[in-house]
Amino acid sequence: MYQVVDKQTIGPNLTQYEIMAPRIARARKCGQFVIVRPFAHSERIPLTVADTNPGKGTITLIVQTVGKTTLEMSQIEKGGAFQDVAGPLGMPSHIEKFGTVVVIGGGLGTAVIYPQAIALKEVGNKIVTIIGARTKDLLIMQDLLAKLSDQLIMTTDDGSSGKKGLVTHALQELIDDPNSRVDAVYCAGPVIMMKAVAQVTKPHNIPTIVSLNPVMVDGTGMCGGCRVTVGGKTKFACVDGPEFDGHQVDYDELMDRLTTYKPQEKNSLDQFKSHTCKCGRH
Fold first, then answer.
1. Residue 75 — pLDDT band, cuts 50, 70, 90?
2. Which class would CATH give 2-89?
3. Where are the alpha helices (DSSP H) in the chain?
4. 43, 225 in Cβ contact below 8 A?
5. 282 pLDDT tier (thresholds 50, 70, 90)
6. The CATH number of 100-258 is which of 3.30.70.120, 3.40.50.2300, 3.40.50.80, 2.30.33.40?
């Protein structure tokens, strides 16, 4: 069992958990993830490790409540525990000194780019961070990224905070600005956003790393559920990734595969909500 030592609501349907997991906290490297099972009967879901505190023995996870399992997780309060937390899994981020690196997070993807920004800063890069969301209420980790970044740009679809528009608009402005430079881009968020970012950087030959989020079950390459096509070859995101060359990913295939179990996911969530209401649990 993995105790929840702290739990905070950081946005609409967004929860930050600090979980006691000493071995993972000591071993985890930037870019790696864990697979979590909240209860013994629950499914396993992959979550990026947003931060660690090796001295304290804790890891930080940020979870968006969107389906049955994340709704189950939301019922675990501070002092409670998760059944399983397996990791660290996946390949660590490729970190080197590029010069000026733009890290881009869309929605919950901001939790992915935060540790990347830390690692890239530590090796001497200038960090320009772009975070985007539909509205200001869905922007997360602004204060942490503001302290870390040489420049922080926020965008919202409705203009309620920062620039009105998409993260790609802000990125294109940086690329077009003769007084700025972009030597590399790290990006995480909705697949359609990562595809658009790669389309912006490819004509300029800017190295672009994206963090993929396919369907995943075991996290060890055995089930094959997380297979993606990169550079015309089949890769497994759980062991070969989750980060890949953004100019080589078949995003359309990935988006199609992400919808494979939508009916089953909806049915599972509906049944869980119905059962919860009958039992009087909230």
1. confident
2. mainly beta
3. 22-27, 68-73, 110-122, 142-148, 167-176, 191-201, 237-240, 251-258, 262-279
4. no
5. very low
6. 3.40.50.80
